[in-house]
């Protein structure tokens, strides 16, 4: 599909935001407080609120980051980093991580898993997982909040609290961050308590019924204790309406949460930070719609009174084999239901109503971060954290548009009757619980010519899930009407039989085993699958940087490494309601044998980095590092099939340069990554009405082979005069994935890396000028973000649309009300040009199903169920007004 805005090419070529398709944030100098600047190879530096004061008030300020576990100047840190500052977050109206899916940081890719907002896919530099949304799987990019790794992707789209900056650490970060960071790490850093009375409150309204409010309060320090409280609320009505009365439409969210932080500094050199946060995110998925029908232009058949598919009175082959071809049986496809429309553009109302209620994600956690300066040459640190996430998922994203086979088979004998074979609309229901504990200790310090970081890390998690995939709707006899057949959300009665729905836990049916085997307590559900998994991770790590005086202190040699032991095991005890797997249902004879797996590995990941200060403003580096993603098991498989870890080797060179008296900054990086034993998912969606797995998503993960990833990143920041800052970032990514034989049947299949465009760019203009009214200033921000077409499924050669999205904000900022209080009034817009593009597309429904024999030869091709492509579109234009007051 083409991008609907006809201005895209002109905007890219003719201003192209001053030809700077730019960086993920807008960093400014401290004097103007402008948004974050691109500063490192693919880096975007924080604004003044996260940076030290510049030496030249006309130029770009220094940027402080903590990517090396110590505070360093980003330009002198030999790592490729992007930093989105608090001002950049505000200017882009980033309320959750999903807002970064527009490509604000070109090397960072964010997308929904499937269509749902309740879980996100996070990727960096081509390391993008397809489906880690399970009990026994991990991603390839670590996500951290204040130094604490998050174990699951569920809940990642919760509302952001008071974030000081978002750091994107690119390439393997296997030494200092370690856990599943082969692609890099996404680190969120919260603002700490100040100990000074003050705060701010913001309230806003916008289209689609959106409204938001947040409060941030710092209390005065007492007895060396400083307290800070944050509260956030965000709401948006659906952007696609559901015709079914009582159901919620698509792309709806209602987020709320709070965070309390305390800083205790009883003696010099000792700081203890404590924080507790709780967030609740109610959301519905993005809508999946039919964008074409019968793209192969095959003949469309009709059904006779017996329900047989015919073409001109002759029975269609459905499958074509040499025997069928000789018999002259025609090939045809089934007609679509009359109610189903083809929509190449974004829909605002669905054709068919389906039961849909918001999924509910709850995230919570407590952390204790202790630092003690034991001596001038050593600081001891401890990070202790408990976190948890629960997801009650209700995902009915597509109605009949996602059916692989014909949506209905008419009941010609009685067209008004319910068609018992015409079920459709997969309702993906899941109830997941995860709890984790982590403990990290570090010793950080410096002695003459040496800087060091050493530490140890322990992580454990327990995760459990039960899920069902009922087909929620059923056609009448001629496809002109339908009924809702699955349990309506909130109804405690489930229909018996495979995949017929699920109900909340009934304590009367666990036969008393809940106390001794709590992992089986949900076994009474009518569910598709249930699994539980436990992970234990141990590691020790260290970095040592040598800066020899004999070489003039301009050469910095860093060597580091991390030894990791990862021990994961689990069990799959329900598969399509099989009673032979579940100890609860076979307690009388104890013959149940759940599927189990164990994965136990240990490995060492080295890193070496050589940096050279060519001049005070030019810094060069070369880096070699490795990283890995742990193995696990796929709970969507029918036997909890296990797979091993994947690993990556990375070679990178980079340059970070300031020039024109610190009014311009250029950073370059090039890298090569070789990934071994790449984890790929093979799957299919079973819509065979006579199958016990009807309506199920069957998936198996294998270590399919080696992948190659190559990339170049370039970033430019220019501040021609104090009021104006121009930023630009570009990322080129080349990848090559292997071919593999599907374990689910079929021949050799080419594989694809998802959500990784060959070309991605982002650019921004920030203009800030004071006005002589109440000491206020006018702030203008515009950013444009481009990505070339990309794959969204690992098994399909179908690509998404290229995309270009603009965001903007205009503010009358810091209007002085009195000596202490200031007010800001602003108008913002996301997707300013209301550009429409497909970010996720599947042609699986459009492709003939080929059955491959054991010798790899084609046995037959099934044409009976070809329907068309289904797709998810980006969110439409949203805009709003905000009022913010500082006190």
Structure in words:
The protein is mostly beta strands. 3% of the residues lie in helices and 49% in strands. The strands form twelve sheets. It has a 22-stranded antiparallel barrel. Strands 5-10-11-8-9 form a five-stranded mixed sheet. The protein has a three-stranded antiparallel sheet with strand order 17-50-47, with no helix packed on it. 52% of the residues are buried.
Distance between the termini: 49 Å
Give the strand content: over 45%
Shape: globular
- Which class do the helix and strand fractions yield? mainly beta
Give me the oligomer status.
Answer: single chain
Radius of gyration: 28 Å
The helicity comes to under 10%
Q: Which ranges are low-confidence, i.e. pLDDT below 50, for 5 or more consecutive residues?
A: 1-56, 488-525
> Please, what is the average pLDDT?
82
Q: Tally of extended strands?
A: 51
Number of helices: 4
Largest sheet: 22 strands, antiparallel, barrel
Summarize the structure.
The chain is mainly beta and 887 residues long. 3% of the residues lie in helices and 49% in strands. The chain has a 22-stranded antiparallel beta barrel.
Chain-wise SSE layout:
Layout: H1 8-14, H2 16-19, E1 37-38, E2 44-45, E3 64-65, E4 72-73, E5 81-85, H3 86-91, E6 108-113, E7 116-124, E8 141-145, E9 148-149, E10 163-170, E11 184-190, E12 198-206, E13 211-218, E14 225-236, E15 253-264, E16 270-283, E17 288-290, E18 302-303, E19 309-311, E20 314-315, E21 319-320, H4 322-327, E22 359-375, E23 378-395, E24 418-426, E25 428-447, E26 450-468, E27 471-476, E28 482-484, E29 529-546, E30 555-575, E31 595-615, E32 618-629, E33 632-633, E34 642-643, E35 646-659, E36 664-676, E37 679-685, E38 697-703, E39 707-721, E40 724-736, E41 739-741, E42 748-750, E43 759-770, E44 777-787, E45 803-816, E46 822-830, E47 838-842, E48 849-852, E49 858-862, E50 870-873, E51 878-886
Parallel strand pairs: 8-11
Antiparallel strand pairs: 1-2, 3-4, 5-10, 6-7, 8-9, 10-11, 12-13, 12-51, 13-14, 14-15, 15-16, 16-22, 17-50, 18-19, 19-20, 21-49, 22-23, 23-25, 24-27, 25-26, 26-29, 27-28, 29-30, 30-31, 31-32, 32-35, 33-34, 35-36, 36-39, 37-38, 39-40, 40-43, 41-42, 43-44, 44-45, 45-46, 46-51, 47-50, 48-49
């Amino acid at each position: 599909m083409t991008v609907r805005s006809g201005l895209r090419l002109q905007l890219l070529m003719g201003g192209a935001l001053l030809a700077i398709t730019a960086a993920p944030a807008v960093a400014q100098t401290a004097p103007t407080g402008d948004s974050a600047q691109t500063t490192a190879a693919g880096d975007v530096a924080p604004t003044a609120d996260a940076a030290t004061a510049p030496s030249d008030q006309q130029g770009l300020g220094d940027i402080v980051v903590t990517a090396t576990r110590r505070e360093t100047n980003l330009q002198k840190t030999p790592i490729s980093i992007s930093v989105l500052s608090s001002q950049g977050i505000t200017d882009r109206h980033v309320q959750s991580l999903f807002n970064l899916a527009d490509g604000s940081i070109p090397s960072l890719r964010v997308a929904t898993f499937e269509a749902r907002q309740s879980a996100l896919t996070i990727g960096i530099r081509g390391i993008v997982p397809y489906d880690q949304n399970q009990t026994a799987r991990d991603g390839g990019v670590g996500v951290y909040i204040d130094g604490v790794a998050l174990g699951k992707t569920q809940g990642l789209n919760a509302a952001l609290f008071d974030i000081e900056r978002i750091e994107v650490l690119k390439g393997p970060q296997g030494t200092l961050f370690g856990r599943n960071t082969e692609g890099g790490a996404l680190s969120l850093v919260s603002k700490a308590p100040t100990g000074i009375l003050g705060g701010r409150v913001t309230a806003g309204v916008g289209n689609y019924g959106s409204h938001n409010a947040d409060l941030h309060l710092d209390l005065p320090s007492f007895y060396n204790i400083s307290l800070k409280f944050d509260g956030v609320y965000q709401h948006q009505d659906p952007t696609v309406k559901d015709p079914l009365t009582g159901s919620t439409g698509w792309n709806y969210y209602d987020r709320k949460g709070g965070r309390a932080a305390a800083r205790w500094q009883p003696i010099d050199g000792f700081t203890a930070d404590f924080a507790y946060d709780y967030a609740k995110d109610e959301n519905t998925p993005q809508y999946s719609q039919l964008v074409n029908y019968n793209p192969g232009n095959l003949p469309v058949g009709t059904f006779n009174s017996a329900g047989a598919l015919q073409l001109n009175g002759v029975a269609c082959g459905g499958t074509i084999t040499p025997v069928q071809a000789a018999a002259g049986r025609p090939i045809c496809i089934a007609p679509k239901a009359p109610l189903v429309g083809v929509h190449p553009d974004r829909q605002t109302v669905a054709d068919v109503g389906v039961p849909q209620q918001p999924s509910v994600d709850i995230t919570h956690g407590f952390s204790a971060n202790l630092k003690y300066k034991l001596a001038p040459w050593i600081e001891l640190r401890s990070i202790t954290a408990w976190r948890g996430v629960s997801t009650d998922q209700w995902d009915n994203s597509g109605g009949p548009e996602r059916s692989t086979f014909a949506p209905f088979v008419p009941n010609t004998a009685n067209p008004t009757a319910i068609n018992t074979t015409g079920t459709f609309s997969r309702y993906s229901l899941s109830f997941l619980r995860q709890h984790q504990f982590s403990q990290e200790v570090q010793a950080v310090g410096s002695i003459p010519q040496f800087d060091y970081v050493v530490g140890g890390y322990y992580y454990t998690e327990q995760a459990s899930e039960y899920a069902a995939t009922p087909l929620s709707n059923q056609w009448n006899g001629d496809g002109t009407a339908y009924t809702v057949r699955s349990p309506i959300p909130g109804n405690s009665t489930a229909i018996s039989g495979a995949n017929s729905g699920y109900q909340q836990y009934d304590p009367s049916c666990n036969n008393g085993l809940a106390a001794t085997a709590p992992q089986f307590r949900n076994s009474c559900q009518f569910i598709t699958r249930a699994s539980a998994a436990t992970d234990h991770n141990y590691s020790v790590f260290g970095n040592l940087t040598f800066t020899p005086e004999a070489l003039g202190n301009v050469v910095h040699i860093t060597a580091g490494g991390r030894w990791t032991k990862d021990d994961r095991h689990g069990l799959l005890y329900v598969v399509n309601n099989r009673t032979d797997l579940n100890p609860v249902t076979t307690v009388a004879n104890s013959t149940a044998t759940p599927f189990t797996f164990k994965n136990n590995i240990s490995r060492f990941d080295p890193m070496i980095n050589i940096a050279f200060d060519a001049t005070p403003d030019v810094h060069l580096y070369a880096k070699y590092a490795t990283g890995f993603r742990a193995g696990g098991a796929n709970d969507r498989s029918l036997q909890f099939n296990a797979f091993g870890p994947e690993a990556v080797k990375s070679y990178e060179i980079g340059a970070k340069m300031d020039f024109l008296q610190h009014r311009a900054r250029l950073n370059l990086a090039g890298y090569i990554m070789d990934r071994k034993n790449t984890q790929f998912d093979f799957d299919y969606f079973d819509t065979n009405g006579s199958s016990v797995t009807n309506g199920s998503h069957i998936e198996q993960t294998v270590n399919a082979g080696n992948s190659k990833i190559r990339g170049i990143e370039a970033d430019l920041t220019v501040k021609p005069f104090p009021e104006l800052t121009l930023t630009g970032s570009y990322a080129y990514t080349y990848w090559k994935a292997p071919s593999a034989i599907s374990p689910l049947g079929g021949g050799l299949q080419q594989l694809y890396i998802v959500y990784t465009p060959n070309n991605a760019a982002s650019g921004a203009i920030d203009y800030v000028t004071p006005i002589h009214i109440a000491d206020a200033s006018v702030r203008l921000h515009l950013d444009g973000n481009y990505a070339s077409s990309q794959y969204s499924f690992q098994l399909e050669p179908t690509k998404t649309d290229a995309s270009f999205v603009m965001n903007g904000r205009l503010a009358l900022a810091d209007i002085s009300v009195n000596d202490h209080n200031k007010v800001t009034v602003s108008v913002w817009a996301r997707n300013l040009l209301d550009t429409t593009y497909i970010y996720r597309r599947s042609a699986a429904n459009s492709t003939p199903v080929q059955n491959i024999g054991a010798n790899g030869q084609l046995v037959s091709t099934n044409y009976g169920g070809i329907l068309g492509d289904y797709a998810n579109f980006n969110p439409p234009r949203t805009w709003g007004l905000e009022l913010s007051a500082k006190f």
